[in-house]
Write a structure and sequence with these properties.
mainly alpha, 314 residues, MetI-like fold, 2 domains, 2 strands, single chain
Length: 314
Amino acid sequence: MDQNKETTKRPSKFVRSLKKHWPLMIFLGPYIALFILFFIYPFFYGIYISFFRWNLFEPSASLFVGFENFQKALFGVGDIVIWKEYFWNGLKNTILFVVFSVPFLIILPLIIAILLDMEPRFFKVFRVIFFMPTVLSVSAVSIIFKWQFDTNAGFINGILSLVGLGDTSWLNSQPGAWIAIIVTTIWWTIGTNTVIFGAGLKEVDKTQYEAAELDGCNYFKVLWHISLPNIRNQMFICTITTIIASFNVYGQPFILTGGGPERTTTVLIMVIRGLLSGANAQPGLAAAMALLLGLVIISVSIVQQIYNKRRARD
């Protein structure tokens, strides 16, 4: 009798869960495998090699140097002071890009989403038009705008010459180079945030608008006290993701200006990439710089999250 009870014993909770959710596991399995292969593994591998003077061609000959790569990047070591200059210049330019671009990438999509939420004529067509650039690659977008900002044959200078402003060397001088990079980025990326804000506005409870209308509130009061507070979560998500994406800028300055003029648009990822190419490649130093950039991004995200929570409490 006891043996029969043992043989008919129910399977464990884990096994029952697997049997119940096996379709979900089949769909999630490839994603999890790719996530581990292309994110988790490179992340920890990058941390590992940042403590070595890494040899790309013969990894077994790599020399453990502890925090030397981080010292090179932050303070310079011996005759390698130049990497300190490159790191801080790249980080400064990256932060400048974040400061200049993020406000436009949040405010402009929000304004567009509010206007489209009024459902003007052909608003669905405009929604598609604003989103379409996001499906293009950064290379295609940057090449298009490099032609537009060309000093001699560009569309921008062609328009300016009609009003007597003459030719401007956009890509070879400042602030023209930054203007070109930011305009390119705005045109390419505002569609995503516009869609997110638009979806958030559509989810606002319409009874709140009806109550405000009965109270005699004008449009701007309704916008400030009802619409914007109801999409606070969407605004926070868009701000965080936009900041992270802006810190990872690379393609636009690389293609449009090549980091010039005089390295004023050389962002940190361009410096990191330079360390991974050529006969004197230094992967360990590149990994250290990448980790430092990651720490900056994490710090900014944490500060933004704390600020958002305090505002929500208030």
